[in-house]
Design goal:
mainly alpha, 3 helices, about 90% helix
Length: about 170
């Protein structure tokens, strides 16, 4: 009897340990995910700021050039130059837009990846938990009878217990 009790205790402790480990692992995973997300956000922000800066710089430079041209050139040449400048501006804007679009696409992809990872983790966690729970149930069932009749079927066990009680 004492031995049985000891065994039960041991099993319970092990189960508790397993549960703790699982929870810890899940927490760690969550933390990692959060960190990754934060990092990604930071990177995106930095990129955005940089692009904005570049765009502003480009515009300022263009303005300066225009001014210079106006000062220096005569009317006809100035017109041509203006046209050229406009073309350049357009090109720059187009390129910037393209870059922005690319960035957005990248962000979307990353988010999708993260979501997928999260889903996978959840699945794994759920399966693990299920397994642990099942194990606990089986252990409980196994430890229900304490007088040695472990290899018999369940419905027989109940009758055996009844008979034992009656005979006692």
């Amino acid at each position: 009897m004492e031995m049985m009790m000891m065994m039960m205790m041991m099993k319970a402790t092990t189960m508790m340990m397993m549960m703790m480990m699982m929870t810890m692992m899940i927490m760690m995973m969550m933390m990692m995910m959060m960190m990754m997300m934060m990092m990604m956000m930071m990177m995106m922000m930095m990129m955005m700021i940089m692009i904005m800066m570049i765009m502003i710089m480009m515009t300022i430079m263009m303005m300066m050039m225009m001014m210079m041209m106006m000062m220096m050139m005569m009317m006809m040449t100035m017109m041509i130059m203006m046209m050229m400048m406009m073309m350049m501006m357009m090109m720059m804007m187009m390129i910037m837009m393209m870059m922005m679009m690319m960035m957005m696409m990248m962000m979307m992809m990353m988010m999708m990846m993260m979501m997928m990872m999260m889903m996978m983790m959840m699945k794994v966690m759920v399966t693990m938990m299920m397994m642990i729970m099942m194990n606990a149930q089986t252990l409980k069932r196994r430890n229900e009878i304490t007088d040695g009749r472990t290899n018999e079927r369940k419905n027989e066990r109940a009758t055996d217990l009844l008979t034992v009680c009656l005979t006692d």
